[in-house]
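EI: anyone free to look at a 154-residue chain?
SC: sure, send it
EI:
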Amino acid sequence: MRICLRYAKNKDEAVEMVNDGFMKVFMNMSKYDNQRSFNAWLSTIMINTSIDCYRSRIRKIEMEELNAKHEVEDSENILSHLNYEDLIKLVQKLSYAYRTVFNLFAIDGFSHEEISEMLSISVGTSKSNLFKARENLKKMLTETPNPSLQKINY
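SC: here you go
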């Protein structure tokens, strides 16, 4: 559920992703390799299910205009200053494209090349979406009424 919540817009959508993910787990249980960690296998399925949901929804919404010239800034890691629940609430406010790239890069550790392949987008689009996701998160952090979140410096 934690993985799907990061990618979902809200809890209901996350529940739908979890259900789809467990359906894939049960349908592919014979493909599970006992030499591998079950948690890692399950996490991979939930991430891929979330990406599949992204792909199906992204076709229905209009993509933001992207500028491939944006360079991703190496600013202080905002994740180190937020507790998990606060981060999830902010990330869920991002658009589908921004939320998905942010999760894959910042939280799940995928490279822009891997993200571009997974989502069928260019590397520049991945970098641009990450840049814009970070900018939106910074803006949300400065506008939030929660005093513990306002103490973060950039």
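EI: DSSP finds eight helices and no strands in the chain.
SC: 👍
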